[in-house]
Design brief:
Oligomer: heterodimer
Number of domains of chain A: 1
Strand content of chain A: 25-35%
Distance between the termini of chain B: 31 Å
Helix content of chain B: 40-55%
Radius of gyration of chain B: 28 Å
Order of helices and strands of chain A: EEEHEEHEHHHEHEEE
Number of domains of chain B: 2
CATH superfamily of chain A: P-loop containing nucleotide triphosphate hydrolases
Largest sheet of chain B: 10 strands, mixed
Structural class of chain B: alpha+beta
Shape of chain B: elongated
Helix content of chain A: 25-40%
CATH architecture of chain A: 3-Layer(aba) Sandwich
Number of strands of chain A: 10
Shape of chain A: globular
Largest sheet of chain A: 6 strands, mixed
């Protein structure tokens, strides 16, 4: 059984009198430990799919299961709890809380779990070390470079040891060197820790770290390249 | 437990936005200072003017006179009053003030017979410096109320002058009776002579009459007034607190009006906190969406916002209340009019009321933004950024 199973997944919303369907009848399976890159032109439904996988948004129709648990119909509170336990989300613009230090930003998701202060400390230290930024733990986001901010954001995403790691254009705001460094880090998390990663990207170069590349157009899956099939 | 674990994060948000938090807290503290001082004034006036069930003191004044300079009663009236049923003691009293107008710093001299000092002062009293014997032994001696002594920096053995009189401080009086805390008690003949009211044994300003049964207060007051109704100097007799309330009616009205200011101060506190919270919420739309993405529930984020309002309100309220309490206690202010004192209460009631009000307003100011946040959709929050 796949870790993530989407069946006839559809998302429709209204903008004024216009009905928009960014995702339509999507069937998709993602295996545990996979590294999937979602590509496609703007408006193709990539981010919508990512948000549905993250439990940030709800499908209008269809089903979504993660690790065998249906999440498409979870009540709001239960969905939030599910997110805190199973989803690590990496934003394009890092989205660190500006008044909190790197350490405090990474600690945030752990405040939702029943952990002692020392347990939280150990986990944060481990996550910061994993992304190679432990020496900047007292720095505020404004004191970090873009690449460093994204590493802190990745540490925040992995600190709860989530089931899936979702990344929305994680290198979109970085220079090439920082982007390569971040992609290597994600690949390392995937290969060494077995983390399942789903990444939205516009940059074909970043797909070389993924084992599967999915192309979306107008809300439909138009191409799927796995391993050696990839261009 | 989640509710407790996020408290440090809320504190960091407050402390690390020092300008916004600081300005809001200072604004709240200023408004709360005003509120507490006004409430302390109201409390003092209320204590001085509201007749209590156990009151046993009547004040006999010249009818239709409210100023000590115009109330003149023959001292022998005291002998006639003393013969009435239910009257236990009558103290003739001469009153002389440094300033007849409403003021925060008036010295009021009360002249009483040498042997009547203990009768003249009512309530729980204690001489905390000097002795009554010492006072009785000197014609120019004064026993000074604690608040007056503190305000003027007086100690036993000092001499001080006011209203054309120079007296020797023979004792300091501590009492729970607000009327007596701002008084300088002197000998009646000394004051009559010094005030040039015709010499010893002629005229006094008022009589303080003690009765044995509080329930008979009004009846005995009527009996006293009936006794002198056809006399050359008709009297008006009232329970002491009612007398103060009537004589100082202008101050009472003014202080009651000042209550509007207190409500205005509370409105200002509410507006300040609400404004700070609304701005904070608007600034943090993205942050809150991120927190939701991390798994923070809407109610939990709402709780954090509400907590921020409560903490800001509490800190501002505490600062304002502490400043007001310090000012009132150090200043030992009393409102004096026509020789009657209404002490600005330095008790805990007004500050505690102020802090509770600030806390409640902080909570209320945070409720609506908190509820709106709790219901907000994550995707909508990100779209709004």
């Amino acid at each position: 059984m796949a870790l993530i199973e989407c069946r006839q997944l559809t998302r429709t919303y209204r903008r004024g009198n216009e009905e928009i369907t960014p995702l339509r009848d999507l069937d998709l399976d993602i295996e545990s430990g996979g590294f999937v890159a979602l590509m496609g032109p703007s408006g193709s439904g990539k981010t919508t799919l990512l948000n549905l996988l993250a439990g940030i948004d709800r499908p209008t129709a269809g089903t979504l299961s993660v690790a065998g648990k249906p999440v498409h119909n979870l009540p709001r509170r239960a969905l939030a709890n599910w997110r805190s336990a199973h989803v690590g989300y990496i934003f394009q613009l890092y989205n660190l809380i500006p008044v909190l230090t790197a350490y405090e930003n990474v600690e945030l998701p752990l405040l939702l779990q029943s952990l002692s202060r020392s347990e939280r400390h150990d986990r944060v230290a481990t996550a910061l070390e994993a992304v190679g930024i432990e020496d900047r733990h007292e720095h505020y986001p404004r004191q970090l470079s873009g690449g460093q901010e994204q590493r802190v954001a990745i540490a925040r995403a992995i600190v709860t040891e989530p089931t899936i790691l979702l990344a929305d254009e994680p290198t979109g705001d970085l220079d090439r060197q920082s982007a390569t460094s971040v992609m290597e880090l994600l690949a390392q998390l995937n290969s060494e820790q077995g983390r399942t990663i789903v990444m939205v990207t516009h940059d074909p170069r970043t797909t070389e770290w993924a084992d599967t590349v999915l192309h979306l157009e107008k809300g439909r899956l138009v191409e799927q390249a796995v391993g050696s099939e990839r261009p | 437990m989640r509710l407790l674990r996020v408290i440090p994060t809320v504190l960091r948000q407050i402390l690390r936005s020092p300008i916004r938090s600081g300005l809001t807290i200072v604004g709240i503290a200023v408004a709360m200072f005003l509120f507490v001082v006004v409430e302390a004034m109201r409390e003092g006036v209320h204590t001085a003017t509201q007749v209590q069930a156990g009151d046993t003191t009547l004040v006999v004044y010249r009818e239709n006179r409210f100023c000590p300079f115009s109330s003149r009663l023959p001292q022998f009236y005291g002998d006639r009053i003393e013969q009435l049923d239910g009257v236990t003691d009558v103290v003739p009293m001469q009153i002389h003030v440094s300033n007849c107008r409403a003021s925060l710093d008036v010295v009021t001299f009360r002249g009483v017979p040498r042997d009547d000092f203990n009768t003249a002062v009512t309530g729980e009293t204690q001489i905390i410096g000097g002795t009554v014997d010492h006072w009785q032994s000197r014609g120019d001696a004064a026993i000074v109320g604690e608040a007056l002594a503190a305000r003027r920096g007086l100690r036993v053995g000092d001499r001080f002058s006011a209203a054309g009189l120079t007296v020797y401080v023979a004792g300091i009086l501590n009492t729970d009776h607000p009327q007596d805390r701002n008084i300088a008690w002197v000998h009646l003949p000394f004051l009559q002579e010094a005030a040039r009211r015709g010499g010893t044994g002629a005229l006094v300003t008022q009589f303080n009459v003690l009765v044995d049964d509080p329930k008979q207060l009004e009846a005995i007051a009527s009996d006293i007034d009936a006794l002198f109704t056809h006399d050359e100097h008709p009297t008006a007799t009232r329970p002491e607190r009612a007398f103060v309330g009537r004589a100082a009616r202008d101050i009472v009205d003014l202080v009651d009006f000042a209550g509007v200011l207190a409500w205005g101060a509370l409105a200002a506190v509410f507006a300040l906190i609400a404004n700070a919270i609304v701005l904070a919420v608007r600034d943090r739309v993205r942050d809150h969406a991120v927190l939701q993405t991390l798994g923070f529930t809407g109610p939990l984020i709402g709780w954090m916002v509400m907590l921020e309002g409560v903490i800001i309100g509490l800190v501002g309220g505490l600062l304002g209340a502490a400043a007001a309490l310090t000012t009132v206690r150090v200043g030992n202010f009393s409102l004096t009019m026509e020789g009657l004192n209404m002490e600005i209460a330095g008790g805990w009631t007004a500050p505690l009321l102020g802090v509770a009000a600030a806390l409640t307003l902080g909570f209320l100011a945070g409720v609506v933004p908190a509820i709106r946040l709790a219901r907000r959709d994550i995707a909508a929050s990100f779209r709004a950024v």
